[in-house]
Structure formats: structure tokens, C-alpha cells
Amino acid sequence: MMNPVVKIDIPEVKKLYSGKVRDLYPVDEEHMLIVSTDRISAFDYIFPNGIPGKGVILNTISSLWFKNMSFIKNHIVEDNFSNFPAPYSNYPELFKDRSVIVKKTKRIDFECVARGYIIGSGWKEYKENGSVSGVTLPSGLKMAEKLPETIFTPATKADIGHDMNVSIDILKETLGNKDTELLKEMTIKTYEYGRSMLEKTGIILADTKFEFGYYNGEIILIDEVMTPDSSRFWDLQKYEVGKSPVSFDKQFIRDYIDTTPWDKNSPPTPLPEEIVIKTAEKYGEILDRIKNMFN
Fold first, then answer.
1. Cα separation, 129 vs 97, whole angstroms
2. What gap in Å lies between CA 18 and CA 25, rounded to an integer?
3. Considering only CA atoms, which of 271, 287, 270, 268 is closest in space to residue 43?
4. Mean pLDDT of 230-241
5. Is 126 helix (H, G, I), strand (E, B) or coil?
6. Would you kindly state where each structural domain of the chain is located, as residue ranges?
């Protein structure tokens, strides 16, 4: 396998920000470059080794969704490396196929989560109090069961530490009723579009999270869209209510971690090679299906 790209530094430009997966670089006053590395994180820790090709897969999937969703505005300005300015154009090994130039926005500091199925932190919260992010759900739901309707369950956007599920009232206090309702509408509409498209390829989109930002006073979609890092993709043919679904996303790594002695509160050791290879295969599979879906 190729060596993963986990650290990017070029002498000509100082990066604006380095996150768990993406690094931001300046372009001009109105634009910046986002590069998706091969870093992999789980339980708020970045692992020492990456997943080869992961950043290219994430970038390609997001670009496909952005291009094919005319009903919502987004931040993409340029995704063709041949049109990138210097110095980025001088480093194809670092930026080609894994970068986009985008509009600078004022990021809304909440994760906008849409859930069509009950799983993960939502399942844990539901078992404790019968609701998720303040949304009361029917009693008697089983793990991985489809919900009667899509729910909007926002979360805090944490650069460090855990994202925390919050009620929609928290958003209203921060953003106001109008923008909160617009975020809810955009989140659910985009999720349901993606879920409908993916079902045709034998994939269940169980849930996903979006990020939005203000651009010239308007809310637009930013960051990544319906990737294996931000979504739960399940194999439709193997799906069973009440069982942990077969997935094509980062859940595979979380499940592996749960079999190890790692305490999730200290820096982790590198992932075993077989887990790296299997994760790359799962990410590649969802990319192939999305590519075929749009062809």
C-alpha cells in the first residue's frame, strides 16, 4: 500500500488551522484551501498511522455530492488541481485529488445531525431517557431500527474533546428561531436526498452530520458531505433490526477499538496493518458505489 499522508507542511505558506483530518491554507482574502489528509481519529484521538488514500476518498465523495445537489448552496470554488495557484500547484503529491478551494465563511459552531435510524450515541441516549437531543421517540425501539421520521439532533462542535448532543432550543438561543429552523430543514432535506440515492446502491444511510457557515449573510453547506467519516453507511442486504449493522465507515475502527485494552483517555498505539487495510477497503467500496450512482 502507498504511504499515508498524515502531515502536510510546505515552506512557502503557513497553514491556518490543522484539525483531526483536514488542514486549512490561505489563498486570498475571500478564499482558502482545504486539504483532506489520511489521518484517522476515533474517540477524539488521532492515531499515529493513517489510512492510505483516505483523504482522496473523502474529498472525492464530498465533491460528487456537492456537484449533484443543486438544491443547496455550498462553499466549493475549485476542485480541479490543474487550476490551483502556486505554491499548491507545485506539490501534486500533497494536494492533488485531496484538496478544494472554498469560500471563507463564518462557521456555525454546531454539528447538524440527521438521524433516520437509532444507533450510536442516539441509541445510548434513547435507552437512558427515551429521547435524543430532546426529541421524544416511540417506546420499544430496537437498536438500528428505522425511525418513524427523520429527526434533527444537533451537537456542539468541539475541536478538542467530545461533541455533545444538545436540544434544538440551544440552537435557537444562539442563532435565533429563523436560522435554526432553516438549518433543520436543510439538514433533513439533504440527508433524505442522500438516503434515497444510496438505497438504490444497496446502502442504508443511517445518519449523517453536516456543517454550515454564513457567506454574505446566507447559510451555505461547508466542510464534507456524506462521507464515511461523517456518516453511517450500512449494507442493506445484511441489515437486521436489533443487531449491529455491517458498515462501510469509521464504525469498523470503533468496533475494533472496543476489543482492545485501550482506555480511550490516553494517546493510542498504531492501528494494526490488517485494520488499516480493511478500513481502506471499506472506504473504497463506498466511493465506488457513490461514483457508480452518479454515472
1. 44
2. 9
3. 268
4. 97
5. helix
6. 17-104, 107-250
The three cell numbers locating residue 288: 465506488
Distance CA 62, CA 211 (A): 12
User: How many degrees, rounded to 5, is the angle at CA 50 between CA 292 and CA 267?
Assistant: 140
pLDDT digits (tens, 9 = 90+) for 165-212: 899 999 999 999 999 999 999 999 999 999 999 999 999 999 999 999
Q: Is residue 234 a contact partner of residue 120, using CB atoms and an 8 Å limit? A: no
Task: Identify the helix (H) or strand (E) that includes residue 46.
Answer: strand 45-46
Report how far apart the first and last C-alpha atoms of the chain are (Å, whole number).
28
- DSSP letter string, 136-149: E--TTPPTTPEEEE
pLDDT, tens digit, for every residue of 93-132?
Answer: 999 999 999 999 999 999 999 999 999 989 999 999 999 9
| CATH of span 17-104 | 3.30.200.20
* Angle at alpha carbon of residue 36, lines to 35 and 38, rounded to 5°: 135
What is the C-alpha separation between 275 and 94, in angstroms, rounded? 24
Q: Are 127 and 120 in contact (CB under 8 A)?
A: no
**Cβ of 220: how many Cβ atoms within 10 Å?**
18
Three cell numbers, residue 229:
467519516
At 264, list the grid cell: 480511550
Place of cell 466549493: 76
Sheet with strand 76-78: strands edge to edge: 17-18, 22-26, 31-36, 99-103, 76-78
Q: Which residues face 107 on adjacent strands?
A: 213
Class of domain 107-250: alpha beta
Whether residue 289 contacts residue 281, with contact meaning beta carbons closer than 8 Å, is answered with no
* Integer CA distances (angstroms), 92 to 2, 58, 84, 87, 253, in order: 15, 17, 10, 10, 29
User: CA 75, CA 89: separation in Å to the nearest integer?
Assistant: 21
